[in-house]
Write a structure and sequence with these properties.
Helix content of chain B: 25-40%
CATH superfamily of the largest domain in chain B: Thiamin diphosphate (ThDP)-binding fold, Pyr/PP domains
Radius of gyration of chain A: 19 Å
Number of strands of chain A: 9
Oligomer: heterodimer
Number of strands of chain B: 14
Distance between the termini of chain B: 40 Å
Shape of chain A: globular
Largest sheet of chain B: 7 strands, mixed
Strand content of chain B: 15-25%
CATH architecture of the largest domain in chain B: 3-Layer(aba) Sandwich
Strand order of the largest sheet of chain A: 2-3-1-4-5-9-8
Structural class of chain B: alpha/beta
Number of helices of chain B: 12
Largest interface: A-B, 42 and 47 residues
Shape of chain B: globular
Strand content of chain A: 5-15%
Order of helices and strands of chain A: HHEHHEEHEHEEEHEHEHHHH
CATH topology of the largest domain in chain B: Rossmann fold
Helix content of chain A: 40-55%
Number of helices of chain A: 12
Chain lengths: 319, 324
Amino acid sequence: MDSDRLLSLYRQMVLLRHFDEMCLQLKLKDLIMNGFHPYSGQEAVAVGVCAGLGPDDHVMSNHRPQGHSIAKGSPPRAVFAEMLGRRGGVSQGIGGPMQWIDAPRNFICGSIVGSGITVATGVALAMQREARGPVCVCFYGDGASNTGSFHEGLNLAAIWKLPVVYICENNQYGEAMPVREFVSVEPIARRAAAYGLEGVCVDGMDVEAVAEAAGAGIAQCHTGTGPVFIECVTYRFRGHYGGDPEHTYRTKAEVAEWRQRCPIKRCRERLVAEGTDQATLDALEGEIHSQLDADQAWALAQPFPTVEQATDHVWIPLS
Amino acid sequence: MRTITYCQAISEAYREEMRRDSAVYLIGEDVGRWGNLFGASRGLLEEFGPAQVKDAPISEAAIAGCAVGSAVLGMRPIVEIMYIDFITIAMDQMVNHAARYHQLSGGAIKVPVVFRTQGGVGMRNSSQHSQSLENWFVNVPGLITVMPSTPADVKGLLKSAVRNDNPVVFIEHKALYFTKGEVPEEEYLTPLGVADVKRKGTDATIIATSWMVLHALEAAEQLAAEGIDCEVVDPRTLWPLDKQTLCDSVSRTRRCVVVTEAPAEGGWSAEAAAVVTEECFTNLLAPVKRVCGMRTGIPYGAELEKAVVPNADWIAAGVRELVS
């Protein structure tokens, strides 16, 4: 990957990381009220996958959506506002940190583990009407691969050759339970074989590897041969939710070990090795931080929805 | 006017809507080759092809989810869930996705899906193929719930449901498919959210849903012979409820019996009784009476399954209690 492209991915990952850490602070101050699931550590997945998408492509995401949404183009200030439950949020402050729809960016997420996998099939069914049309990327976690929706959805996509790129973000834990205790196979990508799919497993801490696999998967979907299954092996540096009792299910040493594989650190090392100077990267980070500070301030200044607004658009009244 | 069956009326609604709009498609188990258990979609695969008539695997969650996703991009799916009992597998997609997207998108996304299914007793199929589960859907903001009782209504309401931009749960009854009724030859729509007075009367209002409308009409005939003149009101749409028609009727007759095949507890029958009580309390000559299915799993067998849900005798007895 050329340095300019890698630098742009680096920039996105830094943005997601800093955004996430700011959200965690907002959660600890109770300004984000509940439902925030940190994404720190997994940035290479969202950024690497979304790098291959255009505006017409759709993303179906889960309860840990902020990285996917921003990588798909949602303005960080609107995601901040949603996290804070304010007007100006992507779902006007009605959805909160784990369920929103950014319709102009073709982005949907929801907090029922696994069920988006079935909805993605329908998005792709509609896309299939057009040859070489857009594709649908569906992000879900290791835990979702045990749900009925996963198996029903993958089978349907496979038999109808639907253009879905399934991204299994294996972050090692389903809430507090380690993946090795609750998934019957390793890697999870082996499950793809049950649906006649190849099942690719990549290092989800390496943004270049993710971008390459996702790019190939998206290109394959365009040929009309059906869905693609990519498992990205990654790790969440923070708790399942902001402030969870992490010590009950994993050790500090384990977290420290995974932090050595931080996707941002690795990407930076690569950029520096290829000739980008540290000062440029520092300046870029500084810019991101100031912009996010401004975005957060904007979001905090937005009003909360009124009770009247809480009942807007529940349905379309009969004419 | 010509007479056709409820099932033929559904078939006509399908054809007319699928011809009118190629975005309308059918998805479900055995909707194509078999043409649905009762023949409601027979011949559609041949006429419209597999892109518009999609035989799906036995995967209710995927079927419902697929419909929702495709609706987001402008398609207008009619989902068929073969028995309402199977809808339990699709509840997540209906309740957490279909019913939520319009609001979460600030009105930008519409989810025009019709979830067609059938419930109730009548096929000696026991407790996992005979239930009345409509109450669940009435409780979910964002969903419209329809239960047509006649061939004319099922056709006109299905066509309206297909054209409506909300997710609509459209619940038929297995005992109704081969009942006959007058259905106009020319095209028509029956509006959602509008009740219909199936029989005019002066002494008591029987509010009944789905198959129970037929039993209510039979009860009204029995009672007429005794000099009790009943009005029978079919809400047709459980939500949004046409309170006006219900309350106008009860205000005139001053007595009300609510009849559902579903058990009474926590059900739509309680909603209807509450509405009538709230709006017509000072007009009522007696408390609102409910006649509902027993709180049991539907037992196996032709006689037994019918013994646990209301019939004309139960309904007539309920009315007599109020009149005496």
